[in-house]
Amino acid sequence: MEALPGSQxxxxxxxxxxxxxxxxxAAAYGFYGRNQEHRRSQQLxxxxxxxxxxxxxxxxxxxxxxxxxxxxxxxxxxANTREAEVKRxxxxxxxxxxxxxxxxxxxxxxxxxxxxxxxxxQAKLAxxxxxxxxxxxxxxxxxxxxxxxxxxxRDNLEGKLDSxxxxxxxxxxxxxxxxxxxxxxxxxxxxxxTLDKSKQLTRVGPLNLSLRKTNVKHRYxxxxxxxxxxxxxxxxxxxxxxxMLTLDDRPQPVxxxxxxxxxxxxxxxxxxxxYRKSELAAxxxxxxxxxxxxxxxxxxxxxxxxxxxxxxxxxxxxxxx
Length: 321
Hints:
This protein is of the alpha+beta class.
């Protein structure tokens, strides 16, 4: 029983020593990590300074090459100017031989040798020009492809619009005179209208219309209609695009066309069948039944009368008769 406190003291010492070792290890690992981070930051700073120095050196070299090129161009221009002045001077007509004085020839300026770095820079610029030209060609091809697809889609839409015709007239009036011409056919009724942008409905023939939006640049409009007590909304309807509506009491569709878009109002017309289904049914019911045909017997008198009433084809046939 007396040995138990001694064992507890030993276990406590061992525990303290383990905790101390763990703390020392954690401190050593943290110091090592900080040291590594410090080294990495120093390396990055050194590499950054090296890159900055290299960039500055490259800029200085480019400036030197540019200055040399400018000096060479100035010298060449001065030499060309001197030669032109010498050529322009007139030669003397008659000068004694003993008085002729030869002028020293102008010294020829030899250009300095080309710097290989300048050639390398020119090659890089040529590669960049080629890459830019290739990119431009790709952009041009893509633009041509998109334009072709746009034209094909436009042609398809125009074909669909042209194929959308009413069953009787088969035409779309683009002006007041064309509406009058279609009205003279007597096949359908044409009601012209002018709608201002408003949320209120306006009665036009069998329809109630309300203009909600117009776009003069792209030539389309938005419209709200009430047809047979049902509200319909048409958005982005193009100019001259027919809107076909089927009504209960109409044997054929009712057609709505806008042929002018101006600011906040549009102009157009509504085309409807001349007669309703109920009127056609009433006229069919009130029509008398056709009389039965009786058999006609051929007699000599009838044949003579027919020959007498028939128009002669020419003079010879009339004489023969």
